[in-house]
What does this fold into?
Amino acid sequence: MDTSQSSIDIRALNEKIEKESAFVDLLMMELNKSIIGQKTMLERLLIALLGNGHILLEGVPGLAKTLAIKSLSEAIEADYSRIQFTPDLLPSDVVGTQIYNMKDNEFAIKKGPIFANFVLADEINRAPAKVQSALLEAMQERQVTIGEKTYPLPKPFLVLATQNPVEQEGTYPLPEAQSDRFMLKTVITYPKKEEERLIMRQNLSGNKEKINPVVSLETILRAREVVKEVYMDEKIEKYILDIVFATRKPEEYRLSSLKPLIEFGASPRGSIALANAAKVQAFIKRRGYVIPEDVRAVVQDVLRHRIGITYEAEAENVSSVDIINQIIDNVDVP
It folds into this structure.
């Protein structure tokens, strides 16, 4: 393909994405009615939604994690269910169960709260492993097995899990296999002083604006298909692979000092999620092609939960975020 032809294609793609991504601003405006600040969190929710992934939000209580998810489902006119994870929760409380019907002398299926477009798994680390693993099939396969029958989940299907990093008592850390299934892990910080003043005023006045449905599920599903068309150059693909491979073999990227700090690197799911999230980031920025800035914008949230750190790293107070920063600073940018 000659250069002039490819530039015309990119121009046409840009115009298409400019048109198809117009709803993003509308959705953000609606969400900003109830969520003050937290722009990054809202963008990450949108990336998970359009990238057909799931998201884990970590932050201390009171940072509007639950409110953001509920507002998103209201603005999109989608089915929303909230599961409060507790130590006594059972897998059947999440996915559903078979109930014996004496009148008909047969078993009937009672579907659980997982059968919704948006499922909020609140404080996911409070439930034991068997409940956390009940989510695995749903998150990965987009289906649930109850008894001998398998039921598909509605589209779009998005698990938004929250966890509180402060409390350790009565919590069960997410196993690596489970956390790897989250496309993004976003750490939410406190709002700025000016933002908190507005939050305080809004709550004291009691004038909470109602979130109106501004986007249809069809628009979201169509946008997901358009995201796949976002152009990713081979150089960007190489950049993504270099970042991921540097988490596995840092010595090959002039980063030998990281080898004793990394227990295990990102899995191939990390590469897929990073490429996918970078495409959605370009789409949100209303661009038809991915640039290195898109990759860097999402790399922390995609990889922070996919890199295992050693005891040595913990002793030196080095986190997976510090490791990612070093990798980004050393890997050649296209």
Q: What stands out?
A: The chain has 14 helices and eleven strands. Residues 14 and 288 are 4 Å apart (CA to CA). The longest strand covers residues 96-101.
